[in-house]
Write a structure and sequence with these properties.
This protein is α/β, with parallel strands linked by helices and about 210 residues long. The chain contains four helices and six strands; from the N terminus they run αβββαβαβαβ. The protein has helices at about 5-70, 130-140, 155-165, 175-185, and strands spanning about 75-80, 95-100, 120-125, 145-150, 170-175, 200-205. The chain has a six-stranded mixed beta sheet, sandwiched between helices. Strand 3, helix 2 (about 130-140) and strand 4 (about 145-150) form a beta-alpha-beta unit. Helix 1 (about 5-70) packs across helix 4. It is elongated and about 90 Å long. It starts with a helix and ends in a 9-residue tail after the last strand.
Length: about 210
């Protein structure tokens, strides 16, 4: 090769190397963009799934409520973030709904119109743990019988269920989010279902006036 051709060959090689480098950078950028887009889609899908699971928990509570009313429940106590619009569309005549904030649960016995001699169905979804603990103690003193549906963190559910059984409650069902999804969403378990709250349906088991089976 002539000496004069060397710079031209070098320039061509350098240009090709630069082109390959630019193509590699573009490919990396497109790959990162796709990964970012997929991550965004996964986050949105996860949020949508959590909303669906929340709706399914409320549906579960309303299904148990319908059964309780058919079995003789005559008043409903809703506390925490549970069934936030239920009182406005209560379909059950002559079954009053007492909606309480977490901080008010200990005043349920003094609420106007509440009769602790009548069977009660209670719902606690999305509320504070301390309100749930206080609510269970207060409701247990209702002589007409009590059923309750509540949710509780997966890390605490074992302790709560054990305490219920130790204090006279019968746990009728404990349902994790995977089971809830299968039942109401016709869906397979999701990757983060294990951190979702668990549902518990319980009844005061040592109460002579409890709701019939």
């Amino acid at each position: 090769m002539a000496t004069s051709e060397v710079p031209q060959v070098c320039r061509r090689q350098l240009s090709a190397a630069r082109q390959r480098d630019a193509e590699d950078r573009l490919a990396d950028a497109m790959s990162a963009s796709r990964a970012s887009g997929m991550a965004g889609i996964e986050v949105r899908c996860e949020r949508a799934r959590r909303r669906l699971l929340s709706a399914a928990r409320q549906r579960y509570a309303e299904d148990r409520l319908a059964e309780a009313v058919s079995a003789g429940a005559r008043q409903v106590v809703v506390f925490g973030g549970a069934l936030d619009t239920f009182a406005s569309h209560n379909p059950y005549r002559n079954v009053p709904v007492f909606r309480l904030a977490d901080s008010d649960i200990e005043t349920i016995a003094a609420a106007a119109g509440f009769d602790r001699r009548l069977p009660v169905f209670a719902v606690h979804l999305g509320g504070a743990d301390r309100a749930l603990d206080a609510g269970l103690q207060v409701l247990q003193r209702c002589s007409g019988g009590v059923e309750i549906v509540f949710d509780v963190g997966a890390e605490r559910v074992g302790w709560v269920v054990g305490r219920l059984r130790d204090t006279g409650w019968v746990v009728l069902e404990e349902l994790d989010s995977a089971g809830l999804a299968c039942r109401y969403l016709a869906d397979a378990p999701g990757p983060s279902d294990s951190i979702e709250p668990r549902l518990v349906w319980a009844r005061v088991g040592n109460n002579a006036g409890r709701l019939p089976n």
